[in-house]
Design a protein that fits this description.
This protein has helices at 6-23, 81-88, 100-109; strands spanning 2-5, 42-48, 50-55, 67-69, 94-99, 115-120, 125-130. It is built from three helices and seven strands; from the N terminus they run βαβββαβαββ. The chain has one domain (7-99).
Length: 132
């Protein structure tokens, strides 16, 4: 399971939308292998050097996307991040796209929640909210 502050997830979504408006749309999370799929507001859940979400709007030349690491799997400060990533994301690097239209209404319905948790199975992405 991967945990992110809801405030940070909203910032990543907003940054992606702003980048898309300024630079001509959304990036394809599948490196063009599935044209048109995932080219809408949302976040990329990425597993490589840790696990993080990042904004998906097209970027200006030299710009970097907004990145937020999950609480459990940040390579700086979490000595077991690699084992945690391998156990909960898999050994290979990868990207999963999560649509804003799935996240934002969930956040809006549960205003007291403070954190989003994401759990991956072989076939699904399970989202839940917690309050701390």
């Amino acid at each position: 399971m991967f945990t992110f502050p809801i405030v940070a997830v909203r910032k990543v979504i907003d940054q992606g939308i702003a980048d898309a408006a300024a630079n001509g749309g959304f990036r394809n999370p599948y490196y063009g292998t599935r044209p048109g799929e995932g080219e809408k507001p949302g976040v990329w859940l990425v597993g490589d050097q840790g696990v993080y979400i990042l904004s998906n709007g097209k970027l200006a030349e030299g710009a970097r996307p907004l990145v937020v690491y999950c609480e459990q799997c940040h390579p700086d400060g979490h000595p077991d991040w690699w084992d945690y990533k391998r156990r909960h994301f898999g050994a290979d690097d990868g990207i999963e796209f999560i649509e804003a239209e799935r996240l934002v209404p969930l956040f809006d319905r549960h205003r007291r929640a403070t954190h989003l948790t994401i759990a991956l199975t072989e076939t699904d992405i399970a989202l839940s909210l917690i309050t701390r």
